[in-house]
Design goal:
By secondary structure, the protein is mainly α. It is about 75% helix and about 0% strand. The protein contains 16 helices and no strands.
Length: about 425
């Protein structure tokens, strides 16, 4: 059963949707710029892969700290809008530190600050997105994540174009573009993102919770949340594995060289964007459960193509197919989480967000460990198993509280 689309929401929700989309795009832009600049940091400070790995691990740990902070800020008068606005300021501050750092200890401190901002912005964007989706009364989450993908692609392209053309010493001038983007998004968020103080009557559809539900300690339905957490872990294990190891796989396993080694990740990013643009209409037509199940099976099929590939062309096709499926898993996890306890959605989202970084660490470590012990080809087997587990558990993505139906019942059909 498809979702019933209610009347168009009022202007505040439309403006909030645009502002939060800019927040997603800014996060993707800065993240991609930093990720694709790691080789510059290695050269500048004379550090090796092991040190970079530790720095990334530190970012993931500090992002967890940022998620905890987000939960507390979201309970204040500013709500999730304050979480997102403050997080973008922290990200902008971190980028300045990273760009101008004269020594490795300063760089490490900058990455620690960035980790906190990363966790806050991830939480804030998802909190806002879930709220806005509830205001609209129909699936919107994959569209928000499409904005993240657009930002990531633009950030990657900017670094690629600037390399060799824009000086990286003594200041990483290209990175400073991330400061402008993050602060611009912050201004949009502060001005237009959804405020909990807004009158629910302005927007069609149920947006609030009962006084009983809203009062007191947040109600966290841990059973369903852990199922969704598995989905988030599965996505980020795959995403981190592909972003970190696909170029090495193309080079070392398939003997590719030059630009060809980057095509696998490029194909993955492109198809992730395509799937996210198509995701919300698919959910409205076929329901979240079917979309999650099909997306998981498509993602697993793409990874199996990679695992069994003997030519670069097959591997690139596999990464593209994987992106077409995997790109929908994370946003639909957060979409489902927003229905578990509507009166405490921000608290639920903050806790689910912590699974992001568990997956990122596992994706970077396990795939590499298995690849070192045997073959990188088999390193992608663990991601396949996790995605298949999501397909098996897809039915749980439609479970909502019986006494509330924030979206139509067809959302999970």
């Amino acid at each position: 059963m498809s979702e019933v689309v209610p009347a168009a929401p009022a202007d505040p929700a439309r403006r909030a949707r645009v502002a939060v989309s800019l927040g997603f795009a800014a996060q993707g832009f800065v993240f991609a710029m930093i990720l694709t600049s790691l080789d510059v940091f290695k050269d500048r400070y004379g550090i090796g892969d092991a040190t970079i790995t530790l720095v990334i691990l530190g970012v993931c740990i500090m992002a967890g700290v940022g998620t905890v902070i987000s939960d507390r800020v979201a309970r204040s008068a500013g709500g999730s809008r304050a979480v997102l606005g403050q997080g973008l300021v922290v990200v902008a501050t971190a980028v300045v530190i990273v760009a101008v750092s004269p020594s490795f200890p300063v760089l490490a401190a900058g990455f620690a600050v960035y980790g906190v901002g990363l966790g806050m912005v991830d939480s804030g964007t998802n909190m806002q997105a879930v709220t806005i989706q509830r205001l609209y009364g129909r699936s919107l989450l994959t569209g928000f994540y499409a904005a993240w993908s657009v930002g990531g692609i633009l950030g990657t392209v900017m670094v690629a174009v600037a390399t060799g053309r824009v000086p990286a010493e003594p200041v990483g001038w290209t990175l400073l573009a991330g400061v402008v983007v993050a602060l611009s998004a912050c201004l949009a968020v502060r001005r237009s993102a959804w405020s909990d103080a807004a009158a629910p009557a302005q927007v069609d559809g149920p947006v609030g919770a009962s006084d009983e539900e809203s009062a007191g300690k947040p109600v966290i339905p841990w059973g369903p949340l852990l199922v969704l957490g598995l989905g988030v872990v599965a996505y980020y294990v795959n995403d981190q594995a592909i972003s970190t190891w696909s170029p090495i796989f193309m080079h070392e396993v398939l003997d590719s060289t030059g630009t060809l080694t980057k095509l696998g990740y490029a194909a993955y990013l492109a198809m992730t964007l395509v799937s996210r643009l198509a995701g919300d209409p698919c959910v409205r037509r076929w329901g979240r459960i079917r979309v999650v199940r099909v997306a998981s099976l498509v993602g697993a099929g793409g990874l199996l193509l990679v695992l069994t590939s003997h030519t670069p062309a097959q591997a690139v096709l596999g990464f593209a197919v994987a992106g077409a499926g995997l790109g929908l898993i994370a946003p639909l996890c957060f979409s489902s989480a927003g229905l578990l306890a509507p009166g405490h959605a921000d608290a639920v989202i903050a806790r689910l967000n912590g699974f992001n970084y568990v997956g990122a660490v596992l994706g970077g470590v396990f795939v590499g460990f298995i690849g070192t012990a045997s073959s990188l080809r088999w390193g992608f087997l663990v991601p396949v198993v996790l995605v298949l587990a999501v397909a098996v558990l897809a039915g749980r993505f439609g479970v909502v509280r019986r006494d509330r139906v924030p979206l139509s019942a067809g959302a999970g059909a």
